Amino acid sequence: MIAFASAIEPLRLANQVSGQKLYEWALVSEDGQDVTCSNGVTMRVDMGLGEVGRDDTVIVCGGIDVVEATSKPVLNWLRREARRGAAVGGVCTGAWSVAKAGLLEGKRATIHWENQDSFSEDFDEIDLVKSVFVIDGNRLTTAGGTASIDLMLRLIARAHGDALANTVADQLIYNTIRTDRDNQRLSIPTRIGVRHPKLALVIGRMEANIEEPISPADLAEEVGMSTRQLERLFRRYLNRSPKRYYMEIRLQKARNLLMQTEMSVINVALACGFASPSHFSKCYRLHYGTTPYRERGASGSESPRPDATASLPAELAV
Predict the structure, then answer these.
(1) CA neighbor of 246 nearest in space, from 282, 215, 278
(2) Cβ atoms within 10 Å of 191's Cβ, excluding its own
(3) CA–CA separation, 281 vs 266, rounded Å?
(4) Which residues contact 21 (CB under 8 A, 6 or more apart)?
């Protein structure tokens, strides 16, 4: 809902403050029926999958279950309208639908950070970046949330000048306009609530090396510390060992892949640095309270919560 409203409201305000009808839009669903958002709000739809003008832009707004919602009729419609010349974009997980239609091959694109792991596995021919939005030719993608505002402000500025875009931003009480060079996630120090340069550097290295984990000794050497010093640093600021923290990062990625892709459990295990499915399953069960197989089978029900009292295997929780 945030991504959707953030895409439309800048256009409405551009019309309002300019005193002109600069933009028009229509809401489309697969069957032309109204659509209920994940927050329970029902949106009135203007049309089904009919033809749009060649100078129009098609924006796909995706939510939690984008894979299931991306049907063959939707894919065929996107391909048809792209062939006819329409620009095509996706906000939030809508980028997955555009990619599935084959419209992002060889392009730069972005998607919500939570879906980046699965997107990379599904579409390795796409240059996925972590920016808040990307414009590559007539393909547009955003990371979701308020990133839609930044994309629309850029489009308004391109078409009608910076002054109008800035006026729209003021109307939105949006005092920091991001560009396509801005990263969508908070910095590591802000995320963990700790401003320690070496700790942030080590965590960054962990997040960048999931499939082939780096040993604590090597991580410590990279930042000019001993393994014991690194251990004390993590326990002081994060109340866990480096191995435990690294394991939690890997398991979070594994859960994203299980929930968002059709990768086999074995391949998920390998992609997250586990040498065997049994070891992966054991670690996953201790952290999330369920096995990877049951997690995937229960993806439509309430998600299990990590067991805060559970401890990882001794060799992983040193």
Answers:
(1) 215
(2) 11
(3) 10
(4) 15
